[in-house]
User: Fold this.
Amino acid sequence: MQRILYIGGNLANTGGLSSAATGLEIRVTGNGFEAVNVIKSGFTPDCIISELYLPGVNALEIFKLFKLQGICPNAPFIIFSDQKNPEMKHKAHHLGVD
Assistant:
């Protein structure tokens, strides 16, 4: 079973994930700090999917925190947004976001 950690507050996005969730275990957190707590409690995701804009800090900051602390170093970290923002896209690629 594949494990996905979804970070974000837009629950409309998670509905699509759960309806396609055959063979997936999905954990949903509202922000990056909750995500860290879920991982520290023993959930090891195979993939991390995050909305770009989150309460508190954005997904790029969470990605940097994960990278610096070695949190799930082998899991792809995917960031998405419904807004076109070439500057953020460039920053994400520069940091190594999947």
User: Anything to note?
Assistant: The chain is about 40% helix and 20% strand. The longest helix spans residues 59-69. The radius of gyration is 13 Å.
